[in-house]
Amino acid sequence: MEKMKSVYFAAKDKIEVREVNIPEVRPGMVKIKTAYAALCATDVHMVTMGVLGAQPGIPLGHEASGVITELGEGTGDYGYRIGDKVVVAPVAVCGKCPMCKKGLPQYCLQAAPVAAFSEYIVTDISAVYKIPADADLKKYSLVEPSVCTIRAMDLAGIKHGQTVAVSGIGGIGSILLNMVLLAGGARITAIDPVPEKRRLALDMGAEYALDPFHDDLEKRSMEITEGNGFDHVFEVSGSPKAANVCLDLVAHCGKVTYFAVFPPAYEMPLNLYKLYMKEASIQTVFTSHYLFPRAINLIPRVQTEKIIGKVIPLAQALDAFALFQESRYPKILLEC
Amino acid sequence: MEKMKSVYFAAKDKIEVREVNIPEVRPGMVKIKTAYAALCATDVHMVTMGVLGAQPGIPLGHEASGVITELGEGTGDYGYRIGDKVVVAPVAVCGKCPMCKKGLPQYCLQAAPVAAFSEYIVTDISAVYKIPADADLKKYSLVEPSVCTIRAMDLAGIKHGQTVAVSGIGGIGSILLNMVLLAGGARITAIDPVPEKRRLALDMGAEYALDPFHDDLEKRSMEITEGNGFDHVFEVSGSPKAANVCLDLVAHCGKVTYFAVFPPAYEMPLNLYKLYMKEASIQTVFTSHYLFPRAINLIPRVQTEKIIGKVIPLAQALDAFALFQESRYPKILLEC
Amino acid sequence: MEKMKSVYFAAKDKIEVREVNIPEVRPGMVKIKTAYAALCATDVHMVTMGVLGAQPGIPLGHEASGVITELGEGTGDYGYRIGDKVVVAPVAVCGKCPMCKKGLPQYCLQAAPVAAFSEYIVTDISAVYKIPADADLKKYSLVEPSVCTIRAMDLAGIKHGQTVAVSGIGGIGSILLNMVLLAGGARITAIDPVPEKRRLALDMGAEYALDPFHDDLEKRSMEITEGNGFDHVFEVSGSPKAANVCLDLVAHCGKVTYFAVFPPAYEMPLNLYKLYMKEASIQTVFTSHYLFPRAINLIPRVQTEKIIGKVIPLAQALDAFALFQESRYPKILLEC
Amino acid sequence: MEKMKSVYFAAKDKIEVREVNIPEVRPGMVKIKTAYAALCATDVHMVTMGVLGAQPGIPLGHEASGVITELGEGTGDYGYRIGDKVVVAPVAVCGKCPMCKKGLPQYCLQAAPVAAFSEYIVTDISAVYKIPADADLKKYSLVEPSVCTIRAMDLAGIKHGQTVAVSGIGGIGSILLNMVLLAGGARITAIDPVPEKRRLALDMGAEYALDPFHDDLEKRSMEITEGNGFDHVFEVSGSPKAANVCLDLVAHCGKVTYFAVFPPAYEMPLNLYKLYMKEASIQTVFTSHYLFPRAINLIPRVQTEKIIGKVIPLAQALDAFALFQESRYPKILLEC
């Protein structure tokens, strides 16, 4: 049986690049030569904190682009051909369980992860989305995180001219900032302790950039918004220290979107009376499969040239993970 | 091979009860002993006007309840057992085509109709929804039209205390009226030329009932709404004569929902300036598969005892169709 | 100068019925002979906890109906006449400050409270809403709390067939339950430790009623919703003990609406990771002036005969407040 | 009494620059030295077609910026000072009539037009909005048309990655295109017969530009959208010839927004069956006063340097109107 390299969650705080069998292309499945797969904080948090119920022994990776190299039986009716450029969803879904039938395939009870940090991805055709024939496979490897941030936009519902702050301009934060810029937000303000990230935010189009370690966030936010607070605040850093202040920055009838995956043990003290006095709301964001076609449409408007910081060969995945944790680059890709 | 009765679209304006083979239960499919299947205006319009692209030679029926009698290979993972009471969607969907992947399975490119006017329904498990073990199968045969009217509610977005008129209190109109009553509508006004239907509407909970042949609809509507017009007007009769007046009855920032399937050749003259002066909008309604679970939840609050007018054996389907066209009964069921 | 009785916030935990001058009817104002004014938990919490920034020395009351007895200069253009039955908003608003100009008059910077627990209300015409000439003034005294609960409906956005739980069936909780019943909710479940209130909820139309002191709320909720949790949970009791469990009862993509005014010092521990895993959201509810016309439209569909528990003369307001705190009656009116 | 120049609707198809008394600054009012006032198609259509019920004898103009020169009695509480830079709404509203009380001041029954094509604007403070002290008064003269196009965005509800076409890239069309670019639209396609306008659209950021006189709009639209049609089509030209084709370009579950003011006598034939098969909807757009603060926030992101084509002194208003009708420049300002 043919072998390939694939990155595994080996044990708590430990990943490995393994040589494994390329899975068989069963009916309904396709085989994809992976081009690029992007690292996501969730990959790291699965390994360090067990988020999303991750257990050692599973392969990792869920943001990838590639090219179809084999079509399984019964996949001919859906418009795919060998050689098509594609991206994948994090999981293949069944379409038949109660969650899928409710329109919530992101919670599919039979979900099968795609294992994107691999030379080949073999998955059900339900997880595969065609991209343009002339697509830059690097650029389109960011479709999946774009999906998640578009989900945030759908749930947050920014209206033109509403003021917006984004806390945390990392890999996903910079993509989310891109979506906010495309959402008609005003006085867009980035919050990040790292100077490079504040610079990146301003360079992408944010109007203000604040340093949470040295700026008085509440005072500056009120100055920027003429005493109103921000209509929308997005917390993308996932740092408990950054969580609570968002509630002080939000305007009357505003919304705080906690986009990040916070540590499972963290409990944020929430003053319901203060929230009530402002009639504010809190939103969290998981994802939705239905957004892939819209994210693919929008990729040309994502500033990927600023967001993709580094491309590293799959074989050096351990280095890539180490580099990721330095959080110097917004997004790191594995070349598979 | 085992045979069963099934109602077919035989030729323009002509249906037949045929004796046909019971389809084979292929992998992924289930076999259902149909209990009740409801007649819908769309069944008739397929035969008389070819709506939804219907061509002679196809079996009819898309609103049904029943009991699972056989589970095909590979259906064991989704929580269904032999003996389960279920309802069906009008079509089984693939979950893999571009429309399904966008979250629009109602426009699935591989849709397979269920053929509900049959003693048995054999269909993909994606089209099957479980209902409570103690469910009244007659009552739950109205799940599918409830889905369509709930779709209308989702798209119309009635808010508590908004005023609402419903034009056409037939089978689907009475179910839509039920949904409007459950939507917080105010001064709910039914419009129908048939006295029995106006009585039904009042009996179900409408506050006013107008006769379009003898009442001055615009004058009466303005009286009922203190000169504002209705925030929502639903046209459910499908009669071109009833279409245009809805635009005169609607309030500033109001919405006219053309729910009915109008004759394909009919073109309504639309004065865009008048619509603009009121900032009004027009909505049409198809359906959405994802609403089945919500419709099943809601069936106990649907006044089916008033809406189901007649139950007729499947073998007498031709009589049922004839009776349907007299439009004396809101809903007619075939006992299969 | 003519005198009238009026209920005042005298000191912490202390109200008084005072004999005060009837305010002068200045230009733009109208004078109303108050008919009925309803007690609200907020009146009590202003006196006991200083909510809404209340300070001793102010008159109380914000839910009232009455009849216009005098029209100030310059009020002739707006369609009001002496003898008109009306209800009032909690405050008159200016229409000119930045909050009003944003469409948020509920946060008007020049708001002037109406002081509804008085024999006469003298207020700006902006706070006055006409009701039908044949209106029952008792029934319509509940327009203002209906406004608040309709605001909750607008913000929560219940969809037909979504499952709903309401925690706390007091005065405002019973009105909110009424609105949920009118919102297409399914498997509507009331939660209250007081047997009379659970009975009231079932009598009004709830399907289930749970006792938080004796039922296992999470277990029962999962049974009622087939393991999904409720799509919407409304917390209306304002009891810190009831706050956190709501987060365990809510479904994937569901919403917890904290409607009640919680004690200003209370901080609820919020696990953001658990909220994220369900993509759930949290909403609070203040109010909106624009909803008065819709609430007036809807009053005929509010079960006021079940909700109004007691009518007590204004002179006995202290007894009424004492009775209120026994929380035996959903709503208590002062006959003014 | 002091005099000023002001542009009047003199007779059908005829405007005049008149020398008139500067109105008295009554209580609640402010006096503004007009800086710039922009021409709008509605000004022209009032004179040529009587839209919005316009009758000869009224002063014109409703898009303007300026500086406060006098504050009337009773305006001190709202935060305005002499010397403040401001913009105005098209009309002052009363805040007390039934439409204002519903939150629809755009339909105020006591609305008083601002007469912006004048050296001075004297109006109620309710019509005045502060802009930043360092604001470019030319740029901010486009706040009012930004409000209208933002209203279109609110009503249309473009979601990130949805495909969008805009028909008609004139003064308001170019501003609307700007808003679409800020709305996360994808494959944004401009449609205009004038080459300069197509160039402008591409220059502003549109991806495609089609010529309705030479391109096959339906064919090209399907190519651009891979056979789906556009999720949103905006008709901004107001030309009856451009109206109907929009319905053919729109996708399943899409929306056609007729933004333009069409000739009052024009009736568009609307095939309800075809609309139903796509579950499409139609929206019109009036305006909303509450959007001024959001439009002011957003002006820095409006490409006014490309949209403002010409600035002409107020005294030459007739030339400006003549030039406007050549439709060579997207927006023409009067320097007042």
Describe what you observe in this structure.
The structure is a homotetramer of 336-residue chains. By secondary structure, chain A is of the alpha/beta class. The first copy, chain A, folds into two domains: 3-142 and 302-335, Medium-chain alcohol dehydrogenases, catalytic domain (Quinone Oxidoreductase, Chain A, domain 1), CATH 3.90.180; 148-284, 3-Layer(aba) Sandwich (Rossmann fold). Helix content of chain A is 29%, strand content 30%. In chain A, the strands form four sheets. In chain A, strands 3, 4, 5, 8, 9, 17 and 18 form a seven-stranded mixed sheet that branches. A six-stranded parallel sheet of chain A has the order 12-11-10-13-14-16, with helices on both faces. In chain A, a hairpin with a 2-residue loop joins β1 and β2 (14-21). In chain A, α4 (143-156) packs across α5 (171-181) and α4 (143-156) packs across α11 (292-298). The longest helix of chain A is centred in the middle third of the chain and has 14 residues, at 143-156. The first copy, chain A, is globular. At the A-C interface, β14, β15, α10 and β16 of A face β14, β15, α10 and β16 of C. β15 of chain B pairs antiparallel with β15 (267-271) of chain D, so a sheet runs across the interface.
Key attributes of the depicted protein:
homotetramer, 336 residues, alpha/beta, Quinone Oxidoreductase, Chain A, domain 1, Rossmann fold, 2 domains, seven-stranded mixed beta sheet, six-stranded parallel beta sheet, 30% strand
